[in-house]
Amino acid sequence: MVEGILSNSVIDSKAKTKAKTRYLKRKKSRRQARKSAAPKQNNTAQRHEETDEEDRSDTESEDHTPRERASNGSHSKELKETQEGGREERPQKKRKLSFSHSEEGENCMSEVEEVEVANEVDSPLPAAAPRTSKSPEPQMSLSVFPLPTLPDAPPKSILALQGLDQALVEAEVVNPSSRLPIIPKGDDPRTGLSERTRRRLIELGITELFAVQTALLPFLLGSSAMRRSLYTPFDLLQDVCVSAPTGSGKTLAYVLPIVEILSTRIVTHLRALIVLPTRDLVMQVRETLEAIAKGRGLKIGVATGQHSFAHEQSQLVADMSAKLSGGSSKVDILICTPGRLIDHLNGTLNFSLQHLRFLIIDEADRLLAQSFQDWLAQVLAATQSSPRVVPETAETKTLAPICDSLAPAFLHLHGEVDLHTDIDEKKDPSCQKLLFSATLTSDPGKLAALDLRNPKYFVVQGLSDESEIDGIPNIIAERFTMPEALKEHMIICEAPQKPLMLFHLVHNHSVRNALVFTKSSESASRLVRLFEFFEAATSSSGNPIVVRSYSSDLPTNERRTILEKFKAQEVHLLICSDLISRGIDISHVSHVVSYDAPVDIRKYVHRVGRTARAGRTGDAWTLVEEQEAHYFKSMLRSAGHLERVQRVRISEKDTASLSSAYEMRVLLDIPAEPPERVRTVAFSDLVEPCYY
Ligand SMILES: Nc1ncnc2c1ncn2[C@@H]1O[C@H](COP(=O)(O)OP(=O)(O)OP(=O)(O)O)[C@@H](O)[C@H]1O
């Protein structure tokens, strides 16, 4: 019986072995058949199918005993490898899915693939995941949106032009070296100047026009009669903005058209208003105007607050007895500072801007930065007519009869004037705005405040000035053009050495006829005292250097006297605050010294521009304290100007003779200071005392 059982089990095991052999044979033949059918390449999908197949086989043979599995160790190993292979290949499998289910374009597909591969790398799924999935449906991928990508940064040139007036971007560039000889006789269609004006210019020694004048005169005086009209109610004239280097003749560029056009007037009205930032400039422009307009019968007035308000009123307005709708003026041209102008607009009866033909804003960037009483908005409003609301009021009844004419744009205000013509159109003010500066602003906000009409920009700038760096026009990048014959230098030294450097420049570099700029009026007067001490210590001869301070601390009359002495070369050095850093034109200034370095490029441009004017040569020196050197250089660099400023090194040997003589003298003469508060008894303490 036992034997029977044993023989049965042997038969059983033999049968199983046969079955297994058959299974392996079948499997081998299947594999060979597949291999011969499929291309030889190692296709991942195929491999995967194989794996699936094998998996299925694996499932088929699940009824095998563990022993059999053990005996089939190589088979299990193969299975395991296949599983790992399947796991590795999963991203491709998923890609296949998304490809087959997405209707989106190829680009989108590649996006999907990338995302999935990335996900796979970041957080691999458990290996069994695909197999445990019960769903027969392939996994739908979520609709995928393109990932947000950063747009390419726009080029600097585009960014710099954002928000700017297109007229500024398309400014007319004028070559600074262009000149136009003045023809004394006959017509001159090139400039539009009358023979009389040209003769006057020649009398004044002006034989040719400078670049800015050659560009502006034809534009303002043009050949058409309309351009020369006193009123242009239906033809709006273009406003003009001019950026031209210091000393390039901007004043004449507006004075000549004013004189030329206003000379045709019959009745006196206030037709040209010139606004300037300081009294000194008002006086200077007045001199130029009077010289050019001599014999033309034009009346020129000034309002700066130098005289009493009542006195100015009596100089400006002819009739203050009753309100005249057309205003009343004793002057054709008014030159003024903005503060006093607002005083007259608000407080002087019959002071009216309705007849203005020209509104000139010189040193425009400086004036636009001044928000004093919102002066610009008030001036612009006064050039416009307000709509007539009620024809008959107590006020209009008392309106005096027309003894002074109304400007065309203001005619509707008067009840008795009821002009209905074929051309019964709205009439615009005839005021043309002209802006000038060596450092004209491109700030859209500031320019917008001017309410410019179809402006035309002129920029006087050398072609060699690397006109556009990064495609950004110089005027927009605040790279200002300097006078061609100007030589610029800087001396970097310690702060206490600055006075010595100044004495060195005066005595060893023959700096005379110089403007020396300090940061404040107080610094200017202290430096004058120091200089006088020094001169007393060093000059044995009878020719000491004469030094004076010039700042707003001085009364106007004293300032005028000092300026006249300086012009007469009786004063050799004028130590001044920035009061005269803009616009002042003194032809013999051969040197400018910035004793305190300027902190912004505009100030630098205007200070150094007091020399090398009208084509002359000149030297500018800047004393830069060591701690300021980095800032100063980067300021120049960003203005594209660093290469033009030459660094001059001054050794102790150069100043040895000056310092010993000076320090001895200072020790004797220095005024008593509380000893415990004074750091050292050095001459520098006189200039800028250093207290602990
Ligand atoms: N065509 C010319 N021929 C000779 N000299 C001239 C001519 N035009 C102007 N000038 C002289 O050039 C000097 C500088 O002129 P102006 O004061 O108008 O310069 P600017 O451009 O206004 O300078 P800034 O920007 O410093 O105010 C003046 O002395 C002026 O008389």
TrEMBL record:
InterPro entries: DEAD/DEAH_box_helicase_dom (IPR011545), Helicase_ATP-bd (IPR014001), Helicase_C-like (IPR001650), P-loop_NTPase (IPR027417), RNA-helicase_DEAD-box_CS (IPR000629)
Classification via CDD domains: DEADc_DDX51, SF2_C_DEAD
Reactions catalysed according to its record: ATP + H2O = ADP + phosphate + H(+)
Statement: the UniProt record of this protein carries the keyword RNA-binding: yes
Compositional bias of kind Polar residues: 1-11
Residue intervals of the Helicase C-terminal domain: 485-656
Matching Pfam families: DEAD, Helicase_C
Record key words, sorted: ATP-binding, Helicase, Hydrolase, Nucleotide-binding, RNA-binding
MF (Gene Ontology): ATP binding; hydrolase activity; RNA binding; RNA helicase activity
Top enzyme class: hydrolase
Record carries keyword Hydrolase: yes
Coiled coil: none
Biased composition (Basic residues): 16-34
EC number: 3.6.4.13
Domain Helicase ATP-binding, residue spans: 231-458
Region Disordered, annotated ranges: 1-140
Basic and acidic residues: compositionally biased ranges: 58-91
PROSITE patterns the UniProt entry points to: DEAD_ATP_HELICASE, HELICASE_ATP_BIND_1, HELICASE_CTER
PANTHER family: RNA HELICASE (PTHR24031)
Family classification: Belongs to the DEAD box helicase family.
Domain comment, as recorded: The Q motif is unique to and characteristic of the DEAD box family of RNA helicases and controls ATP binding and hydrolysis.
Function according to Swiss-Prot or TrEMBL: RNA helicase.
This protein's name: ATP-dependent RNA helicase
Provenance organism: Suillus placidus
